[in-house]
Amino acid sequence: MPRNRTPQIKAEVSGATKINPGRFEGRKAPKRQRPIGEPYAKMTDAQKERWAEFTAEMPWLHSAHRPLLRLGCMWAAKMDDVEFGVSATQALSSILSKLGATPVDETRVAHGDGDGDDPDDKFFGRPN
To answer: What is the DSSP string of the chain?
Structure first.
């Protein structure tokens, strides 16, 4: 079984990117991101607490993560109130994995090149 993928930031700190630069050259991070923003208005207080906790723990989250983060907050808040079964635990684990809640998961997200201008920026009035 292969070893887990080393996160980009860890590879830079440890010097692994200098030892084997080809291994890390295809990894890209998103160039333009809108911030995650405030929790949804209809979320409960417990869910909003989880939102604050998750956004503090996962600073890379941005606006595209909002719907999935909302699901994660709902499951995490529910976990505090009721006894969780195996399938509910797996559902929460899956959501957190998709959000990149572990360093290995974060590196697996393909962010695209981000090079060049997006022609839609002018139409939608987005800054470059």
So the answer is: -PPPPPPHHHHHHHTHHHHSGGGTTT----S---B--SPPTTS-HHHHHHHHHHHHH-TT-BGGGHHHHHHHHHHHHHHHHS---HHHHHHHHHHHHHTT-SHHHHHT-------S--THHHHHT---
Which residue is listed with tokens 């995650």?
Answer: 36
How do residues 23-46 score in pLDDT, each as one tens digit? 888 776 556 678 899 999 999 999
How many Å apart are CA 33 and CA 61, to the nearest integer? 9
Nearest by Cα to 51 from 82, 83, 28, 74: 74
Cβ contact 79:88 at 8 Å:
yes
pTM for the model:
0.60
